[in-house]
């Protein structure tokens, strides 16, 4: 039950990280300061920027150049891609190592080790997601509070994808930690004791 709960939590974290990486709401236009009503709301993400009009029409444009992007966006892109890859491999490895699956039932010690390896992959995936989201949030905060001629209501603040990323990182690390609790040491000691006790019992009967 603990392994299954950890796997489901980590799987939900990976799906949330995938959604956060794709969504363009990493930062959005701020409405702080003087009350100025604008008909267009701006959103920017790792891959595209969107403009939502008051009529409900949304227009999005992919970032044209990779090398012209700011360093923190390129870094966050790389971290999110690494996070998704680690989570994908964690999903596959954890399925093989979980006790509720029938793959490798003849060797429970190795099976538990595989489950622990899957948990480690999920933890690393969550750490990459956490690093990417926190780095982007730090840059948004710095640009919002720095002294600039841009009015405060024309700056950017946190978008919904950042909060989704923080939740995804928490779920991935929680699920990975639960999977890492599948420690094979006790099972190994139990097998060794069972193997050592069988010959002695046989001699007594002889």
Automatic annotation (TrEMBL):
It is found in: Cell junction, Tight junction; Cell membrane. One of its GO terms (molecular function) is structural molecule activity. Its main location: other. PROSITE patterns: CLAUDIN (PS01346). The chain crosses the membrane at residues 71-93, 114-138, 158-181. Keywords: Cell junction, Cell membrane, Membrane, Tight junction, Transmembrane, Transmembrane helix. The keyword Transmembrane applies. It comes from the Eukaryota. Pfam families: PMP22_Claudin (PF00822). Coiled coil: none annotated. GO terms for cellular component: bicellular tight junction; plasma membrane. The keyword Cell membrane applies. It is a multi-pass membrane protein. Claudins function as major constituents of the tight junction complexes that regulate the permeability of epithelia. Belongs to the claudin family. This is Claudin. It comes from Cardinalis cardinalis. The gene is Cldn19_1.
